[in-house]
Amino acid sequence: MYRDIDFIRVGNTLARLKNRVEERFPESGLLNVCKELIKITNETEPNLALISKPNYWLRGGVALVVSIGIMFITYGLSLFEVTETKTTFSEIIQVAESGVNDLMLIGLAIFFLTSLETRIKRAKIIESLNELRAIAHIVDMHQLTKDPTEVGESNHNTASSPKRHLSSYELKRYLDYCSEILAIIGKIAALYAQHFPDATIISSVNEIESLTSGISRKTWQKIMILQQSKA
User: Given a cut of 80, is residue 113 above it in pLDDT?
Assistant: First the structure.
């Protein structure tokens, strides 16, 4: 029960977080980020079901193509005639080299076909992970201008300064919500690695978790500054 990430609980946590953001910051861009992340999460469940289920049609097609190829190779070999003539060493080398090259090409073709299902699923997952990575960067953009040292210092603003209307407490809650969203992004990404433990996917998931952890550290540094300023 506690050895796998539960998709339903991740979704429930995200929905509850969206409600919390909406209740405190109903007109914020962060709320729209939560709504978009919920859409991505709803798309995750069918994606996970798709990558977990074998594609029997594709496998059958690959098996048929490979079988036909083997049949043609077998038929070609059956037409080969061996005559009792003297052959030189160089001719033997040429025949052996040609045979090795043909076997390598056939092996590569078979590998390409048999790995087709894995590569299709991997491409689909990478596309979804790139969406999560983009959401993480958007969260970073939302917390970028939230400077805890400028709380209550509106008299220093210029015409191009961002609006800083949040109180110290509201800013703390805003940054905390950013950190929670980033944590959920990492968990959604980990779901793909859990259902498709491919080396490329695991590497991409680790990159996303490193990204979200790095951004979260920045938000918590700002929270600590807020707490120290109140002390």
Answer: no
Q: Which residues contact 1 (CB under 8 A, 6 or more apart)?
A: none
pTM: 0.78
Both 203 and 214 in a single domain? yes
Give the model's pLDDT for residue 230: 64
Average confidence (pLDDT) over 191-209 = 91
Residue 183 buriedness (CB in 10 A; 0-12 / 13-18 / 19+):
middle
The DSSP 8-state label assigned to residue 144 in this structure reads H
- N residues, the chain: 231
* Residue 20 included in any domain: yes
Burial class of residue 121 (count of CB atoms within 10 Å of its CB; 0-12, 13-18, 19+): buried
Q: Is residue 2 part of a domain?
A: no
> Is-contact 124 47, C-beta < 8 A?
yes
Identify the domain containing residue 101 by its residue range: 56-79+90-116
- 156 is written with which tokens? 């220093």
Residues 11, 71: one domain?
no
Q: What are phi and psi of 152, to 5 degrees?
A: 75, 10
154, part of any domain: no
Domain identity same for 67 and 175: no
The whole-angstrom separation of Cα 32 and Cα 16 is: 14
Residue 215 has pLDDT above 70, yes or no: yes
Q: Is the pLDDT of residue 54 over 80?
A: no
Q: Do residue 200 and residue 106 come from a single domain?
A: no
Burial level of 27, CB count in 10 A (0-12/13-18/19+)? exposed
Residue 104: inside a domain, yes or no?
A: yes
User: Is 74 in the same domain as 182?
Assistant: no
